[in-house]
Amino acid sequence: MELYEAIKKRRTIRDFENEAIPSEIIERIINAGLQAPTNDHMRDWHYIVIQDKNTVIKLLDIIPKGISDEDMEQLLKDWNLSDSEQQSAYRNAVPKQHKMLMDASVVVIPLLKQKTDILHPDNISHLNGFASIWCSIENIFLASTAEGYACTLRVPLGDEDKYAKDVLGFPNDYFMPCFIGIGKPKKDASIIKQKDINVKDRIHWDRW
């Protein structure tokens, strides 16, 4: 798949077929992640790729399995989500946070070597490593799209990262930015409407 086509087709998907992904394809996808730019040239990233469903079940046990309509409406209010398209996206995403990862063919946990306190940085440069791993994650999303698969993503809430460390046993000096689910999209998978942005409205030549 040509690069610009993959960029255009990439969408977060939360409804997956029950279909295994060959290990060589998973390795190609992860290797694409390793090609991302890195802040210190060391690419000190690791990726835990979980296919065993018993491990996935244990890993996801801390994630809520749904949300009531009442709580959903309160969440929209608390987070000041007033845009109708944004509300629609959250109404689709929030109830599926557990199921989307459970149904994915693999769950990937990207890890970066934590050299500074990411949650309490002294300056913006201390976030360079964190920024780099997100470049890696985007490469994984694009590579998955090029291979005919799709990704979903959850940023850990509360103690989910500490719980994941206990379940998966990764070292204390590695930081987990997210859960990634990869799988074959269902034919009737929900495709969330994206904001239609005209690039000419967002480019400021030479100055704002």
Structural write-up:
This protein has helices at residues 3-9, 23-34, 53-60, 69-78, 84-93, 97-103, 128-146, 160-168, and strands spanning 45-50, 106-113, 150-154, 174-175, 179-183. By secondary structure, it is an alpha+beta fold. It has one domain (3-201): 3-Layer(aba) Sandwich (NADH Oxidase). Helix 1 packs across helix 7 (128-146), helix 2 packs antiparallel against helix 7 and helix 3 (53-60) packs antiparallel against helix 8 (160-168). It starts with a helix and ends in a 25-residue tail after the last strand. The mean pLDDT is 95.
Distance between the termini: 35 Å
Number of helices, counting only DSSP H or I runs of 4 residues or more: 8
Q: List low-confidence stretches.
A: none
Task: Indicate the radius of gyration in whole angstroms.
Answer: 18 Å
Number of strands: 5
Q: Output the helix-strand order.
A: HHEHHHHEHEHEE
Largest sheet composition = 5 strands, antiparallel
Count of separate structural domains: 1
Overall shape = globular
Helix and strand content put the structural class at alpha+beta
Full CATH superfamily name: NADH Oxidase
In CATH terms, what is the fold-level topology?
A: NADH Oxidase
Percentage beta strand: 5-15%
Rounded mean pLDDT is 95
Question: Short summary of the structure?
Answer:
The chain is an alpha+beta fold and 208 residues long. It contains 8 helices and 5 strands.
Question: What are the main properties of this structure?
Answer:
alpha+beta, globular, single chain, 39% helix, NADH Oxidase, 208 residues, 5-stranded antiparallel sheet
